[in-house]
């Protein structure tokens, strides 16, 4: 049984169908890519999965449970965590305090302050931020703020992690470091869905990819199948991606 599936998921903003009758499924342990042009509906779909938005119609199931209409905190406590396209750290709070918040809102039973602190420190070491744990989050570089969002999401102890463009705006060295971090997260047994425009990362990391365009699914398959799709090349990848 898939860990996540959506059936005819639809969301309108006024007369615009941001997501239109999209079917999808994500298998346990997969790295699932979500790509498409800007405005294709990718982040809207993330918002529907994480209950930031409610669909106009359709059904979303997590571990076989219909979560359509659930509150975001409940979905988080079931095991779904996310990052955001535009980083949403608490800028005046130290890095450590940003992460420890996730420990209190995740899937594990209510934690003591000591246990939450130990978990936060372990995750900060994992993402490479332990040396700046006392730094206000707003003083971090963009790359480190993105790492902090990943750390806070991981502190909820998710089974499914939604990564929304964690490589956007990064230089090549930072992209390589982010790719390595994604691999290590996946090695922990966490299922991943990635929205990403860095195609090198998408093609190297993902097991399957779904392509959205104007809110509709236009393709789904392995990285090679997507790279060879005439429709995807025309609307998104461009001729250079054939190489």
CATH architecture of the largest domain: 3-Layer(aba) Sandwich
Name the structural class: alpha/beta
Element-by-element helix/strand order: EEEHEEHEHHHEHEHEEHH
What oligomeric state do the depicted chains represent? single chain
CATH topology of the largest domain: Rossmann fold
What is the spatial order of strands in the main beta sheet? Answer: 6-7-8-3-9-10
What can you see in these coordinates?
With 243 residues, the protein is of the alpha/beta class. The chain has two domains: 1-78 and 163-169 and 193-243, P-loop containing nucleotide triphosphate hydrolases (Rossmann fold, 3-Layer(aba) Sandwich), CATH 3.40.50.300; 80-158, no CATH class. It has helices at residues 42-49, 72-78, 95-104, 113-127, 142-154, 172-187, 199-205, 223-227, 230-237; strands spanning 4-13, 16-26, 31-35, 57-62, 65-66, 80-82, 160-164, 191-195, 208-213, 216-221. A hairpin with a 2-residue loop joins strand 4 and strand 5.
């Amino acid at each position: 049984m898939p860990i996540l599936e959506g059936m005819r998921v639809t969301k309108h903003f006024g007369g615009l169908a941001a997501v239109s009758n999209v079917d999808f499924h994500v298998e346990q342990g997969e790295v699932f890519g979500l790509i498409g042009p800007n405005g294709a509906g990718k982040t809207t779909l993330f918002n529907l999965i994480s209950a930031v938005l409610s669909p106009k119609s359709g059904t979303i199931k997590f571990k076989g449970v219909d979560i359509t209409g659930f509150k975001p905190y409940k979905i988080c406590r079931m095991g779904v965590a996310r990052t955001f396209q535009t980083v949403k750290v608490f800028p005046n709070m130290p890095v450590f305090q940003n992460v420890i918040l996730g420990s209190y809102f995740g899937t594990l039973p209510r934690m003591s302050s000591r246990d939450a602190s130990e978990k936060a420190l372990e995750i900060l070491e994992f993402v490479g931020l332990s040396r700046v744990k006392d730094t206000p989050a707003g003083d971090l570089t963009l790359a480190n703020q993105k790492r902090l969002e990943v750390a806070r999401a991981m502190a909820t102890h998710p089974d499914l992690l939604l990564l929304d463009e964690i490589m956007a705006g990064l230089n090549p060295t930072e992209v390589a470091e982010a790719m390595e971090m994604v691999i290590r997260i996946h090695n922990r047994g966490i299922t991943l869905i990635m929205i990403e425009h860095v195609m090198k990362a998408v093609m190297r990391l993902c097991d399957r990819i779904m392509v959205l365009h104007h809110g509709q699914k236009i393709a789904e398959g392995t990285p090679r199948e997507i790279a060879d799709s005439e429709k995807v090349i025309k609307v998104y990848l461009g001729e250079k991606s054939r190489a």
